[in-house]
Design brief:
seven-stranded mixed beta sheet, single chain, four-stranded antiparallel beta sheet, binds pyridoxal-5'-phosphate, alpha/beta, about 15% strand
């Protein structure tokens, strides 16, 4: 017998005040920034304070703020200074902001396949994508779940290839007790609206390598040598600076990060306990060495058990007011026009004409993990503001919808 469910319970949303921790602390510091009359970080104190505190919190020598996560990644890639046609091994499931900056730097993204349970790259999949032209390896700790950094760093160190960690979704996440972002030569974070720490738009790069950190700083400053005896614009670069307004918000937000992370991790553990044992539904997998900090909470849906698979379940959840995202980014990055049709600069296709044919071979059979990952994943909306009533509501909705769809 089915009973009519009650009206949907409104869930806190990371797109507005209901699901974010923005409050009086941010308002106070933004007011202070405005009253000071100094909104540029070249003269103000908030962005500098953010950089100092972020570096300290994560245990890195240096942190450099940027005006977006995409810019943070761009600066990190520029710091590595690839020759045109050099290859960056990266992942097929990530934000486009982790990919297009590689092209802007004249390098070729080469996609490694992912492991379907986590949607993350592995040392094995990276190794298959390496070539003599590999200049860097970029890993994304997707959804807040760390990649296996033991195996990846062993591979990279053996080959002498620098690693960039995209930690945009993985604030507070650790591998083997150590924060992600501190394994590779450079770690990058996004402070976009939906991330653990938000300034609306924003980013930050961390590094223990003074020379790389210097190049990151220069890249977001038009490569102008501030403070040097004879400054110049040393190389091609952009203005990617964070403003003091963002910096003020970020300083206040950073003080709340531990609480945000704890809430997201605890809520995830609670939901996982409630969802265990539903036929056709797998709760998030994590390695015992990993602390996953749940930017999103993802289910894996078995379409041989649940009618319509992840999209089918998403349709039913929507009727309960739960806006989940089947397939996450819809299609692998290499199926987007920028890669599939090589839409770059005018009609030049630059830098793709420099690519080895194999580096741009996006045939589906080379990416079985990627297609399996997207086919099964169902991304649930997530927030640090969830309480037991929200989690109980989500759990019972998932359970009822899964049972209704059982084949
Ligand atoms: C959000 C995100 C980015 C891009 O950050 P923006 O701040 O939106 O430019 C890059 N990589 C990943 C994995 C992200 O989640």
């Amino acid at each position: 017998m089915s009973h009519r469910p009650g009206p949907p319970l409104p869930l806190p949303s990371d797109q507005d005040a209901t699901g974010r921790t923005l409050g009086d602390e941010e308002i106070a510091l933004v007011s202070e920034a405005i009253r000071s009359g100094t909104l540029t970080s070249t003269k103000g104190n908030f962005v500098r304070k953010l950089e100092t505190e972020f570096a300290k919190a994560i245990g890195a020598e240096r942190a450099i703020a940027a005006n977006s996560g995409t810019m943070a990644l761009h600066a990190a890639f520029a710091a590595i200074d690839p020759e045109p046609g050099d290859e960056f091994v990266t992942t097929s499931i990530t934000d486009m902001g982790a990919l297009t900056p590689i092209l802007y730097q004249g390098a070729i993204p080469v996609f490694a396949d992912v492991e379907p349970r986590t949607c993350n790259v592995t040392a094995e999949s990276i190794e298959k994508a390496l070539s003599p032209k590999t200049k860097a390896i970029v890993v994304t700790h997707l959804f807040g779940n760390p990649c296996d950094m033991t195996a990846i760093m062993a591979l990279a160190n053996a080959r002498g290839i620098p690693v960039v960690e995209d930690c945009s979704q993985a604030f507070g996440a650790t591998w083997d007790g150590r924060p992600v972002g501190t394994f590779g030569a450079l770690g990058c974070f996004s402070l976009q609206q939906g991330k653990h720490v938000t300034t609306g738009e924003g980013g930050i790069v961390v590094s223990n390598d003074a020379a790389l950190a210097r190049r990151v700083f220069l890249f977001v400053n038009k490569a102008w040598g501030y403070g040097d005896p004879q400054p110049d614009h040393y190389f091609i670069a952009l203005n990617g600076r964070m403003s003091e307004l963002q910096g003020a918000v970020a300083v206040a937000q950073l003080a709340k990060l531990d609480g945000v992370v704890r809430s997201r991790v605890d809520s995830a553990a609670y939901l996982t306990r409630k969802l265990n044992g539903i036929a056709g539904i797998e709760t998030p997998w994590q390695d015992p060495r990993a602390v996953h900090t749940f930017w999103k909470y993802c289910l894996r849906v078995d379409s041989s058990v649940i009618r319509g698979g992840a999209p089918g379940l998403a349709t039913l959840l929507k009727e309960r007011g739960i806006a989940s995202a089947p397939r996450y980014i819809q299609k692998p990055a290499f199926r987007c026009a920028v890669f599939a049709e090589q839409r770059t600069f005018g009609n030049s296709r630059w830098p793709f004409p420099l690519a080895r044919p194999e580096a741009v071979d996006y045939s589906a059979e080379r990416f079985p993990g990627t297609f399996a990952a997207l086919e099964g994943v169902l991304v649930l909306p997530w927030s640090e503001k969830y309480g037991a009533e929200h989690l109980d509501y989500i759990a019972s909705a998932v359970r009822e919808c899964a049972e209704r769809s059982k084949m």
